[in-house]
Amino acid sequence: MKSGGKIIAVCLLLLFLLEASLLEIKYQVFSGDGFLQANRLDNWYEIFLFIALTASSFLMIFLLTTQLLTKGLRFIFPSLTKPWFLAATGYIFVYGISLTFSYKLHHYLADHVDSSVIQAIAGNSLENAIVYISDELATLLLPTVLFTICVILLYRRLAHEVPLKTKHYRLVALSVFAAFILSVTLASHSVLKNAQRNMAFNGIYKTVSTLTDWDMDGSTLLSTPSDPDPFDSTLFWGAVDIPGNGIDENGLAGDLAVLERRAEITESFKFPAQYKNLMVIVSESTRADILTKQINGQYIAPNLRQLAATGSSIKHAYSHSGFTSTSLYTLFSGAFQSKGTHKSIFVQAHENNYEVSVISGQDETWGNLDKKLGTRRVADFFYDPQTVPDKRVYASKLASSIKLSDATITQALRKRLDHIDLSKRQLFYLNFQSGHFPYYHKFMDLKFIEKGIPRREINQENKAWLSKTYWNAMAYMDDHLGQVINALKEKGIYDETLIVFLGDHGEELFDSGFLGHGHNINTAQLHIPLVLSAPGVNFEKPIGLSGIHGWLSSFIDPASNTAVKYGQCVLLYTGKFRKPAQIGQVCSADNQLQVYTIAFDQYTGAPSSEPISKLKASLAHTWESALFKDTPK
């Protein structure tokens, strides 16, 4: 064997194909049918550009890295005979290990693959992240050792290395760079978004973003929208627009006008005095049409329908963002972002001498919710998958994947009811996880399907099977909702307990070619059920999770106990609240949404006599005013 060039070329090809395969498995970048795949590649032209862009990025980094490493090895070890081979294999080793770690860390991020929430993995704790993947470190060790042994053996067998000559290297490098520039120029928004999932392109993208952030304000020429002033650190995308100062701090829609006084109360309801306790039941990824959905002539959720029939159903309730962690934070704190001090209803209840019971099917460290809301600190009884690891429905240790079955939650509630202090008011929080992707686990009853759809078969062609699997999960949840109601009745506290049932967000089941939530403003993803055990709650205007928080807070406050609705509209957004990808609102009972997609500078909504530019600016200012009010001064 005379040269390692062919070996390196084959290894590079295999490594690139491996990453492409992982991208398809995780995000379905080529088939476009994946969970949370909001930027599908629609044709072969886009697929070709995606491959060209990621391949040229991969080779650019390889060529640059090996050149620098080779020169460094020659300088440090002048007698080294094959520095280029070592540099090339070193690149392959590091890239491969990084790729493996990346996909191990994100493998079960089923409902938060967007970069705006990936930061919440493992509670933003490196220590937790290591713990979560500890069972997978052994699987990394063996291939690493084998790779190292192979490199040593190959290095010894090589008579000499024949790297590219300088003029050939420059020609190859120039060709790769030209291909990269051409691909970037021709790439559509979908191609660029998918390419950012490629490790090499994402590295280049972040490097360029950092280098063009001349005023170091976090906003660059690559931001969407771009930095309004690259040399002024007070003006950037994500800045809070201060009302009436004549300056457009974020460069979106002109300066925000002086804020008007708080909107008038448009609807209100006083809870009957009989209700002493509060039970909030959140059902993961639950669509508003659960109350009317039938399969084979059977209603999916008879227990929820009965609760609505004897109590109340709010027809126009919405999640603001469509993501679990942000939705739950807003529901329980009333705020859109966890900046400053926002007292949660759990802390409020604790201060008002309630007994607080948290019984959750999700890991409450997800998104640091337990810390942000103070649940673990103030709860008299705290129960989640971390406290009973033997009852998890999945083996993964990642916070986004640790789930408990609804049966486990119901059993925990029954045990808890045996120990509550009936002389005190009670706050119960239950979180059901049946609706979480992939909508099936081995402990789930099969009522409307013979078999849950496997992940590998989830695509648009199997939409009907997928839909039935999801609705079967909702039926399973409803069965346990019925058991919760029975448990309260058996304890003798049902009539004095206000039950508030709702979804944290909706779920799109390829309704418009998309699967998941949190990436588009539409009714499938944001319209949620809201059912109360109290009769006579007849709110007709749209209500959001922040408004529902006001109801919960009012109920806990002994001096209030009145639910109110302020104004006409509910603010909607996707992405980070401070840097949304979309801004929207719903103002009418016909669920007509108004949406401003910032990346495309596009407005969609009901026909209006107003100019489109004015409609977009109005939505932008609605969000800016909410951001200003929500940000600590």
UniProtKB/TrEMBL annotation:
Keywords, ordered alphabetically? Membrane, Transmembrane, Transmembrane helix
The record's Gene3D superfamilies line, in alphabetical order, gives: Alkaline Phosphatase, subunit A (3.40.720.10)
Which InterPro entries does the protein's record reference? Answer: Alkaline_phosphatase_core_sf, GAG_Ulvan_Degrading_Sulfatases, Sulfatase_N
Protein name per its UniProtKB record: Sulfatase-like hydrolase/transferase
- Keyword Transmembrane in the entry? The reply is yes
Sulfatase N-terminal domain sequence ranges: 276-537
Q: Which residues cross the membrane?
A: 47-64, 84-103, 140-159, 171-192
Instruction: Tell me where on the tree of life, at the top rank, the source sits.
Output: Bacteria
Does the keyword Transmembrane helix belong to this entry?
A: yes
